Amino acid sequence: MTHPENPDFKMMVVSDGMGGHNSGEEASHITIDEMKNWFSKLSPEYYKNVGNLQNVLDNELNEISKKIFDKFGGNGGATFVGVIVGEDKTLLSNVGDSRGYMLKGRELIPITRDEALVQNLFESGEIKERDDMRFHKSSNIITQFIGAESVNPQFYMANNKDYDMLFLFSDGVTDCLSDNNLLAITKTTSRKYLASRILDNALRNESKVRDEI
Question: Which of 74, 166, 179, 208 has a CA-to-CA distance to 160 between 20 and 30 Å?
């Protein structure tokens, strides 16, 4: 969405209801609606320096998480990944395992870190390859989610000139398509059809747990 007072001031958000948690779908809708309301009321002055939004966004995500926690008692939750694009810089944030990427030329760059058990196993060396995280038997266990009593969002800053496009994905995409798959699609698809092509490819692939991982 664009800010009502500045069409160059933009926000993108993906929120994915958590599988296995009651009311996950409603939790993701609440997250999106609350973020849209928050951004629409945000002072347009933040456009000049989105870095000043980090604490403000942190507070907002904690308020949303607490609201969902109070409603569902911890039995409803959602992931969150979002970007706010300002004049010169972009602020990225995530909670859970929905991901943010930047495309620059012919390079697809993962920005966010999954807040998930498999990410910890990969970093400790128990999972040898990053791509194997999506096939692990514990790939559905995330370590933070919107809907907990409190959250600690991760934040990242990027210069706008450092990317050509931004991508936000739920694990419905990244469990089915590797980073190399995604990059290959961007190389052969125009912007107009890119989102639908990624969706089509994700729907045709499956991520099956491998017992040996």
Answer: 179
Contact 182, 156 (CB under 8 A): no
Specify the DSSP class assigned to residue 138.
Answer: T
Rounded CA-CA distance 150/107 in Å is: 35
- Tell me the average pLDDT of the chain: 89
The Cα–Cα gap between 91 and 76 comes to 27
Q: Which residues contact 178 (CB under 8 A, 6 or more apart)?
A: 131, 134
- In the chain, what is the straight-line distance between the N-terminal and C-terminal CA atoms, in Å? 40
29-43 pLDDT, tens digit each = 999 999 999 999 999
d(CA 156, CA 51): 9
For residue 101, what are the contacts with CB-CB under 8 A and spacing of at least 6? 108, 109, 110, 111, 166, 167, 168, 169, 179, 182
pTM: 0.88
| Phi, psi for residue 109 in degrees, rounded to 5 | -115, 115
Q: Measuring CA to CA, which residue among 134, 140, 208 is closest to residue 178?
A: 134
